[in-house]
Specification:
Elements (H helix, E strand, L loop, with lengths): L5 H18 L3 H6 L5 H10 L2 H20 L13 H15 L3 H21 L2 H12 L5 E4 L16 E5 L2 E12 L6 E8 L10 E7 L5 E3 L13 E12 L1
Parallel strand pairs: 1-4, 2-4
Antiparallel strand pairs: 2-3, 3-7, 4-5, 6-7
Length: 244
Amino acid sequence: MIEWSEQHLTIRDMVRRFVTAEIKPRLMELEHGDLPPYDILRKMMAAFGLDEMARMRFQKQIAREKAAARGEKLKEPRDARSAEDIGMRLVPIIELCRYCPGMVTALGVSVGLTAAAIMSKGTIAQKERWALPLLTLEKIGAWAITEPGSGSDAFGGMKSTARRDGDGYLLNGSKTFITNGPYADTTVFICKLDDGSDAKHRKVLGFILDKGMPGFTQSKPMRKMGLHSSPTGELFLEDVRAGR
């Protein structure tokens, strides 16, 4: 259980005032209109220094990874999962959820799924190119795994494919119910390697896609029963060329 400190409560009150001033008056547009949440989220990130904090954490991690690649011995990093740190991360989420929980989903998928996937599995070059703008919310990310014929059994029923073609791959398939899909600048696309084997046992691959790539189409936002502040859409790929 987290005991809120005076610092937590001060930050909570500041975030609460921001939500009341910036989000509450636009709630109808966010939840029942066509207002994307990203500019407001960016304003919140900047107002509380969350973008700069993300930038500093990123730079420290990349510096460590580059040092490790050079063979340098490194001290164990400080565990950032203290109650104080966790509390600071929870405060904005709690306050956003009081009025507009969809914004938490939009933010979480961009930072917590898309950027985190690249930070976990990507090369240093990929992290520097794609992850940092996602972590600071300069760019929006989507994590594309769900398909029209597969949901809870995402891998078992997955039909999207990557076929080797020269020094790269050709990607084909479609995804649905993708959070941030209509507006994403960067998409982590999950598919299976088309190597002629049984589809259920094919290797699962992930590719980083940029908005506007030839053959890559992002739908308009779906009209849902709720949570329109978390834009959801479909993705269509037809012979999209991706590198190794």
